[in-house]
Amino acid sequence: MSKDALLARRLTAMGPAYKLFYDRPVHLVRGEGVWLWDADGRRYLDCYNNVVSVGHCHPRVVEAMYRQMQTLNTHTRYLHENVVRLAERLGGLMPGDLNTCMFVCTGTEANDLAMQIARRVTGNRGALVTEASYHGNSLLVKALSTDAYPADERPDWLAVMEPPDAYRGPFRGNDADVVANYLANAGEALARLEDAGHRPAAVMLDSVWDAPGPLSPHADYVRGLCERVRAAGGLVIADEVQSGHCRTGDWWGFEAYGIVPDIVTLGKPSGNGHPLAAVVTTPDIAREFASRTSYFNTFGGNPVSAAAGLAVLDVIESEGLRARVADSGAYLHSALEDLARKHDVIGAVKGRGMFLGLDLVADHDSREPLSREALGRITTRLAEEGILTHITGRHGNVLKIRPPLPFDRSHADIAVAAIDQVLAGM
Ligand SMILES: Cc1ncc(COP(=O)(O)O)c(C=O)c1O
Fold first, then answer.
1. pLDDT digit string, tens, across residues 192-219
2. From the alpha carbon of 277, which atom of ligand 1 is closest?
3. Where do the CATH 3.90.1150.10 domains begin and end in the chain?
4. Is any atom of ligand 1 closer than 6 Å to the C-beta of 242?
5. Which of 236, 274, 382, 398 falls 20 to 30 Å from 376 in CA-CA distance?
6. What is the DSSP letter of 370?
7. Which of 268, 270, 279, 299 to mutate to test the pocket of ligand 1 (most atoms within 8 A of CB)?
8. What integer is the mean pLDDT of 3-27?
9. CA–CA distance from 14 to each of 2, 22, 406 (Å)?
10. How far is the CA of 214 from the centre of ligand 1 (A)?
11. Whose CA is nearest to atom 13 of ligand 1?
């Protein structure tokens, strides 16, 4: 089957809402560790996929799922030890009282449930998010995803603040004024919410803001934001769907800010490709929620999913992936900084851990973003060189590098050499 024929069949069978990466889509058929192979046997270095976080087709995860699938798969309305163990392990990895887990299948469902809990528990309806946010695609959560629909369709219970982008946002640099200005901006958003007749149920806190970033702001900003929201009667929901499971070099992205959220949502890496996600909260909040309603999710937290989730935690611990991320992430960051000194088109290196982005500019001084079309050409050229990346950022001008966690220094060297070559050829 030729690639063109498969493309045509896909369009007919699946419709035009689905998009593919790259001007010339890649047809992948196999993966192992940080490597992927296409239908022609060509090998690619995966610098993008965070779902298969402990590596493509990790044998330990595959084996755990296979064994459980052979034995039993039911749902959370029967007792099963796997799901209890997973809840205990996740709770044990969280700070404070965050030790009660509810299982779902996707990041969207986790954020939807988190928001339902926040509304029930606070009695408030409002939510605070940033411009260019993405938290998922259900009716409720899409409203929280300002990146995903036109601004004139925003509900009146939504307050939108500036993402804390110290490179290209309205307030730039590293001094205390910048933090104060972004906090004032968040305060203004809360005031607009009040004017619209709403109090906040929660702020959606990305531990690394991806859609407008990747951004990893000053800890004082995040702490100040949490204080303001709590003072207004809202909870702090940390969306760890991307930044969790050691991607930043800590177990959870919020740890770097020294905060303890009220609710944490987990997703993408939880099952290494198997749809497993969770809401983790405190016993008090869980009890208050349960006093007014119940919750059931047919697939969420089934014994096979839980086996995958447990195997992911085992692999992270036994292979020392947290330390690996801290080392390789710092190495990759520094190599990208070197590249930024060489290529004017790189305005800034953003993010932390293994969650990095190159903010590409048409003009170094004005910081005018490079066009989306140019980014499309760059990611396509990189794919031709066997390097899979993609695009993020509010202006679609950030080259996103967010590989599976076993990515090491040698992989970083390969990726950086290819980016160097592609940028030089622009
Ligand atoms: C930060 C964040 N939260 C939530 C989601 C939604 O997760 P899912 O696609 O599993 O519903 C995404 C997906 O990209 C995300 O990046």
1. 999 999 999 999 999 898 877 899 999 9
2. 10
3. 3-54+320-424
4. yes
5. 274
6. P
7. 268
8. 92
9. 18, 18, 33
10. 14
11. 136
What percent of the chain has a predicted confidence (pLDDT) above 90?
Answer: 95
SS3 assignment, position 424:
helix
What is d(CA 131, CA 225) in angstroms, rounded to the nearest whole number?
15
CA dist 39 and 41 (Å) reads: 5
Please check whether residue 272 is in contact with residue 342, taking contact to mean a CB–CB distance below 8 angstroms. Answer: no
Residues constituting the chain: 426
Q: End-to-end alpha-carbon separation of the chain, Å?
A: 33
User: Which residue has the CA at smallest separation from atom 4 of ligand 1?
Assistant: 135
**Bridge partners, 161 (sequence order):** 130
Return the CATH fold of 59-318. Answer: Aspartate Aminotransferase; domain 2 (3.40.640)
Give me the chain's average pLDDT, please: 96
User: Using a 6 Å cutoff on CB, does residue 240 contact ligand 1?
Assistant: no
Contact between 252 and 264 (Cβ < 8 Å): yes
Q: Report the pLDDT value the prediction gives residue 87, as an integer from 0 to 100.
A: 98
Is 36's C-beta closer than 6 angstroms to any atom of ligand 1? no
Ligand 1 center from residue 107 Cα (angstroms): 5
The protein residue whose alpha carbon is closest to atom 7 in ligand 1 is 107
For the CA of 211, the closest atom of ligand 1 is 16
Gap from CA of 142 to ligand 1 centroid (Å): 10
Mutate to test the pocket of ligand 1, among 109, 140, 241, 272 (most ligand atoms within 8 A of CB): 241
Amino acid identity for residue 253 in this structure? G
Q: pTM surpassing 0.85?
A: yes
3-state class of 10 per DSSP?
helix
Cα of 80 from ligand 1 centre, angstroms? 28
pLDDT at 174 over 90: no
Q: What is the mean pLDDT of residues 389-394?
A: 95
For the domain covering 3-54+320-424, report its CATH number: 3.90.1150.10
Task: Please report the beta strands in 93-211, taking only residues with DSSP state E, as ranges in sequence order.
Answer: 100-104, 126-130, 158-161, 200-206
Taking a C-beta distance cutoff of 8 angstroms, is the pair 234, 262 a contact?
Answer: no
Given the CA of residue 275, which atom of ligand 1 is nearest to it? 10
- Helical pair 303-318 and 59-71, crossing angle rounded to 10 deg: 150
Q: Is 166 exposed, middle or buried (0-12, 13-18, 19+ CB in 10 A)?
A: buried
Q: Is there an atom of ligand 1 within 6 Å of 134 CB?
A: yes
